[in-house]
């Protein structure tokens, strides 16, 4: 997967995504670990435990666990998601860090997908989902109009993930500001709809807990 950069670098969103809780199967023994997000463990060999993704990836690098993939990242579920995206005009509700978590797991825990064919299928489905959603964004922007009071009809863009929203931020605000300057207010209701390229507009992600430890582990990858 490849993301068009926005105001916030893709790497920052992956950093935020690493707080996502995943299941691991450890092959080591550890006591309860107290973190800002909560307590995790104790850890016993072959007993699944919930941990933040960044911790799972740190253990994975040291071959101290396997990662159980989220249910939505299986081939069957991704196929259903793709079909729903193609069938419906609205955007499907995806996990907050859908694309980032998938990318991190494919990059750093690829063997947990079972085999190379499965991992390749997952990559293809993710790319198709991204492309379909991108096309739907383009279609939505083709219908955007500035009304007499400068109101922007963007309600149909609900359901985008933060990284998708970020990708449109700079373009959307700049382009729409230019449109408002170029179009006289009195003619706003009579002008034809402007067609805009795809992009996203959005929100600032939440602050990441355990940032220092997480950053240290990232540097060691």
UniProtKB/TrEMBL annotation:
It is found in: Nucleus. One of its GO terms (biological process) is DNA replication. Residues 11-68 form the DNA replication complex GINS protein PSF2 N-terminal domain. The keyword Nucleus applies. Keywords: DNA replication, Nucleus. One of its GO terms (cellular component) is GINS complex. Component of the GINS complex. This is DNA replication complex GINS protein PSF2.
């Amino acid at each position: 997967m490849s993301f068009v950069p926005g105001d916030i670098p893709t790497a920052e969103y992956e950093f935020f995504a690493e707080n996502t809780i995943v299941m691991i199967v450890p092959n080591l023994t550890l006591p309860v670990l107290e973190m800002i997000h909560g307590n995790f463990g104790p850890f016993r060999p072959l007993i699944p435990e919930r941990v933040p993704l960044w911790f799972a990836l740190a253990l994975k690098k040291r071959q101290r666990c396997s990662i159980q993939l989220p249910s939505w990242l299986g081939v069957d579920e991704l196929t259903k998601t793709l079909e729903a995206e193609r069938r419906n005009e609205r955007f499907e509700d995806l996990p907050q860090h859908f694309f980032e978590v998938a990318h991190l797991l494919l990059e750093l825990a690829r063997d947990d997908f079972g085999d190379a064919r499965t991992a390749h299928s997952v990559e293809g489905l993710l790319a198709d989902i991204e492309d379909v959603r991108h096309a739907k964004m383009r279609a939505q922007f083709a219908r955007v109009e500035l009304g007499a009071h400068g109101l922007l009809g963007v309600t149909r863009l609900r359901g985008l993930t933060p990284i998708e929203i970020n990708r449109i931020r700079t373009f959307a605000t700049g382009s729409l500001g230019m449109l408002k300057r170029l179009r006289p207010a009195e003619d706003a209701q009579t002008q034809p709809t402007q067609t805009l390229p795809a992009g996203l507009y959005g929100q600032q992600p939440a602050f990441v807990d355990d940032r220092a430890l997480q950053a240290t582990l990232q540097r060691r990858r």
